[in-house]
């Protein structure tokens, strides 16, 4: 069985916001990927961005300053 790992999950209010963030992440080299919102989190449009905790620390200011800011940022173990 795979060991669970800590991740940061960014959720968005609309699918359009999630897709805009995906493009923003690609343009700015922000590592991660889109995923369905985990069951533990009931927020947003159903699409989320998953990234490593360390990467979030490195890119937090870039994410905050971007035009596609997330609705909520949550730490989860997956």
Strand pairing plus helix content: what structural class? alpha+beta
Averaged pLDDT:
93
Cα gyration radius (Å): 12 Å
Largest sheet: 4 strands, antiparallel
Q: How do the SSEs run, as a string of H and E?
A: EHEEHE
Uncertain segments are none
Helix share, percent? 25-40%
The neighbouring-strand order within the major sheet is 2-3-1-4
Cα(first) to Cα(last) distance is 12 Å
Shape: globular
DSSP helix count? 2
Strand content: 25-35%
Number of strands: 4
Structural write-up:
With 78 residues, the protein is of the alpha+beta class. Strands 2-3-1-4 form a four-stranded antiparallel β-sheet. The model has no long low-confidence stretch (mean pLDDT 93).
Topology:
Layout: E1 6-11, H1 15-28, E2 33-36, E3 47-52, H2 53-65, E4 72-77
Antiparallel strand pairs: 1-3, 1-4, 2-3
Main attributes?
78 residues; alpha+beta; 4-stranded antiparallel beta sheet; 35% helix; globular
Question: What is the structure about, briefly put?
Answer:
The protein is an alpha+beta fold and 78 residues long. 35% of the residues lie in helices and 28% in strands. It has two helices and four strands.
């Amino acid at each position: 069985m795979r060991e669970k790992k800590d991740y940061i999950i960014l959720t968005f209010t609309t699918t359009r916001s999630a897709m805009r963030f995906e493009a923003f992440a690609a343009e700015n080299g922000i590592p991660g990927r889109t995923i369905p919102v985990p069951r533990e989190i009931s927020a947003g449009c159903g699409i989320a961005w998953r990234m490593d905790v360390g990467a979030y620390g490195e890119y937090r200011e870039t994410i905050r300053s971007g035009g596609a800011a997330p609705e909520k940022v949550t730490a989860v173990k997956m």
